[in-house]
Amino acid sequence: MTVQLRPPRYTDARALTVAVVLAVLTGLLAVLALGLGAVATPAAEVWATLWGGGDDLTRQLVLELRLPRVGISLLCGAMFAASGAMMQGVIRNPLASPDIIGVGAGAGLAATVFLLAWPTAPPGGLPWAALAGAWGGFGLVLLLSGERRGAGGLHPVRLALVGVAVAAALGAAQQLVLVRAPDGLGAALTFLAGTVYGADSARLLRVLPWAMVLLPAALLLSRTLDVLNLGEDLATGLGTRVNPARLASLGVGVALAGAAVTGAGILGFVGLLAPHLARLLVGARHGRMLPVSMLLGALLVLAADTLGRALLPPLEVPAGIFTTLVGAPYFLYLLKRSA
C-alpha cells in the first residue's frame, strides 16, 4: 500500500505571501485615503508629498490633517485585532473580543469619566484611565459569568451573552455621562463612539507609544499562546507556568484594547473578525496568525473610515458603523455554532 503525504496547508511561505499582499493593499488604500477630502489630492501628489515634495497647501492637507487620521486608523485597527487574537487564545473562546467581553466599553466609560473629572489632565494620563476601565469591564464579565474554573474554562455562549449585556450597560452609562457633560467637552469626547473623525497629531502621539510597546509584546507572546492552547495540563507538563503566562497575555491584550479606545473609540467586532479571517488564511499558529490579524485589523478600520468619508460627502459615517455591519452577522453565526 502506498501512503501519500500531503503538504501542510499552512506554511510560513504562505503566511509571508499573505502578509505581503495585505501590506501592499493597506499601503495603496492609505495613499487613496490621504488624497480624499474636500480638496482632493491625486495619488501622485500624495506620494510626492510623503517623500518631501509638494507645495505648502498639499503638505498641510496630507501631512497635518489627513496623515494623523490614517495613522490612527491603522494603529487602532491593528491593536484591536491583536487584542482579540490574544483574548481568544488565552480564554480559548472563539467569541472573545474586546468589544464583546466588556473591555472596550469599560475603557470608554473610564476615559469619559476621566476627562470629565479632569479636563486639564495631561494627554498621557488618558490611556492609563482607559486601561483601568478595560480591566474593570473584563473583571465584571468574568464575575457575572458565574464560572469558577478559571479563564480557560469559560463557556463560550455564557461569556458572550454576559459580555454583550455588560458592554451594553457600560455603553449606556457612558452615553448618560456624555449627555450631562458640558457642550464643549461632550463634543471633544465624540471620538469614543467609534470614529477617527477629527484625529490630530496629538491623538496619534497619545496612541503611538503604546502601540510601539504592546504590538511587539504581543508578537513575543505568540509561542506562549500556542502552548496555552494545548490545555492547562499539557502546558504545565511542557514547563510553562500557566497562571503567570495567562496573566501576562491577558494584560497585554487588555492594554492593547484600552489604548486603542483612546484613539478611535469602540470599533465594533474588529477584534472578533480579524483573528478569525487570519486563521482562515494562515492557520491557528499565533506566530503566523497574530501579524496577519494586525494587518487585517488595520486594513479593515482604514477601509471602514475611507468608505465613511467617501459614501455621503460632506457627511462622514463613523467607521464603527461599518465594522459593526460586517462583524455583527458573523458574531451571530459564531454564537449559533457555539450553542
Automatic annotation (TrEMBL):
Subcellular compartments: Cell membrane
TM region positions: 67-87, 99-119, 125-145, 157-178, 245-278, 290-311, 317-335
One of the GO biological process terms: siderophore-iron import into cell
GO CC field: plasma membrane
GO molecular function annotations of the record: transmembrane transporter activity
Cytoplasm is among the record's keywords: no
SUPFAM superfamilies reported for this sequence: ABC transporter involved in vitamin B12 uptake, BtuC
Source organism superkingdom: Bacteria
Similarity section: Belongs to the binding-protein-dependent transport system permease family. FecCD subfamily.
Pfam families: FecCD (PF01032)
The protein, known as: Iron complex transport system permease protein
